[in-house]
């Protein structure tokens, strides 16, 4: 085991291989507050990559309703139960994870603490859809916001982790992380189908193909990334919840890099289960209507602050403008700036790709339309 730096934990940790960061790291931010669970992303991926034999059950992208949705069944709960003592503390002004990661908790002779789902666990991809966390007392639904009952949608893809458990678990060395963009791939020629990666990935984002006897996973649509285009599930997202890009480490954060700004500067987007220890590279703006007692375990101790920052976005023109760039172009926005009431998305050379106004005029029509001699119902 090597000692590596995991900035999401605020400390070093043990990992099977020495630290080796790519030239640039593919990453993403998903705004959970905007997802409508239309599953267009799921289908965009399915029809592009997993329509073949042996891939029927595979969902490289899935969207589940929390708290009761999972694909595969209980993927997160099973591991959370196995991991003891997931405490965080403040040390010298830094938030530090005091518990053990899945690498540090690995049983003797194994590289990762993991488990392998059964066939049955993959049988109900939409289990728990739209199920609330609890009931609403009679009449309370008319009283505005409340936290008795809530749910939210969690869109998931492979996190193209900085410290992938799939890669660490593979005894054949068949999984690799591309040095040019950090995308994690399975070499189909080397894989012998031992399924150690399926067991090791805590997010359960590697799938075994029983026809080819190899493991397969999300490839981040790398042929598109290589052309400066966002993956299929990003381009097709109806709710415009997704932004693709490349993320620097916190010490190299650039304010004009959209992902650095959201993750490192505003700290409004957080990793999924950072305590697992993989330094995952998909970041989530947490749902603001969900009690943070729940989301703190899922997104880490920064969740209260992130909710506060997001709620304050109407008073923060820079953040508001950047949020408006989500889903505004099929190209990867490498840089951005705000000019007045517009957000400008740019490529890596500063060439404008898209310009989005974030304050739009409001037109109030008269109640009675004299021209057509009708009364409109959509007026104040
Ligand atoms: S999410 Fe799972 S499959 Fe993807 S890189 Fe991380 S460990 Fe590997
Ligand atoms: S396409 Fe976008 S809005 Fe629809 S389910 Fe997927 S992530 Fe959510």
Description:
This protein has 380 residues and is α+β, with helices and mostly antiparallel strands. The protein has two domains: 2-136 and 149-307, Alpha-Beta Plaits (2-Layer Sandwich), CATH 3.30.70; 312-380, no CATH class. It is built from ten helices and 19 strands. The chain has helices spanning 40-49, 75-82, 165-169, 196-200, 222-225, 232-235, 258-265, 292-299, 303-311, 317-323, and strands at 2-6, 11-15, 25-31, 62-66, 88-91, 94-97, 152-156, 175-177, 184-186, 206-209, 214-217, 242-247, 270-271, 282-285, 335-339, 342-346, 352-357, 368-369, 374-375. It has a four-stranded mixed beta sheet with strand order 12-3-14-13. Strands 15-16-17 form a three-stranded antiparallel beta sheet, with helices on one face. A two-stranded antiparallel sheet has the order 1-2. The model has no long low-confidence stretch (mean pLDDT 95).
Strand-helix topology:
Layout: E1 2-6, E2 11-15, E3 25-31, H1 40-49, E4 62-66, H2 75-82, E5 88-91, E6 94-97, E7 152-156, H3 165-169, E8 175-177, E9 184-186, H4 196-200, E10 206-209, E11 214-217, H5 222-225, H6 232-235, E12 242-247, H7 258-265, E13 270-271, E14 282-285, H8 292-299, H9 303-311, H10 317-323, E15 335-339, E16 342-346, E17 352-357, E18 368-369, E19 374-375
Bound molecules: iron/sulfur cluster (SF4) (2 copies).
